[in-house]
Write a structure and sequence with these properties.
There is one protein chain. This protein is of the alpha+beta class and 240 residues long. It has one domain: Bira Bifunctional Protein, Domain 2 (BirA Bifunctional Protein, domain 2, 2-Layer Sandwich), CATH 3.30.930.10. 20% of the residues lie in helices and 24% in strands. The strands form two sheets. A six-stranded mixed beta sheet has the order 1-2-6-9-8-7, with helices on both faces. The protein starts with 40 loop residues before the first strand and ends with a helix.
Amino acid sequence: MERAKPAESRRAPLSQGRQGGLDFSSSIAPSTSEATAPPPVIKRLGRVDYLPTWQAMRNFNDLRSESTRDEIWLLEHFPVYTLGLNGKQDHVLNAGAIPLVRSDRGGQVTYHGPGQIIAYLLLDLRRHSFGVRELVRRMEGAVIGLLADYDVPAHCRAGAPGVYVKGAKIAALGLRVRRHCCYHGLALNVDMDLEPFSRIDPCGYPGLAVTQARDCGIHDKMADIADRLAKHLTRTICSD
């Protein structure tokens, strides 16, 4: 696979806000007492560091009540490797100067960096008619639906969560459930430097090929693709 040039040099992040930090003081959306939960609130957070964003997700989960609106956060991260709660350090071959964070999500090791759309799903599973396995299936379906908008066939793999195009992984998934609510979510490779994936066993699979939307012929702006992804996620999450 031809190595793409570093994404930072080619295009702006999802939004033009302050990079490297976020103000999460208003993260908790107004509550609702409706019997049927409304669609998730969509928040576009730009390009941000992993650690404060992870802490903000945990804070949101701890502070929310039964009536707090669900949210989907769309963002990019600065370069970072994250290792799942039970992930094996052996799958990190050569992190080099890229930080490695032991996260509390499920799954093994993956890479996040500019040019990758992150969708964090902060959902109260009690108000939905499905559990974690079905949520994973719906998340995969949302990405497959998004790629179908661009006439790019994609598929899932039994026992290996994520979305694949011609056998190469284009989207990784990982969730954490606490107090009946989930956070973390999915990462969709769009227009990024794929080289850091060669320094790990992506998602715990040695030699697993990875790909991205640009290499599949998709050249829309990051923000437009993120908006499409949010619509597909909202549709699949809110459907019966």
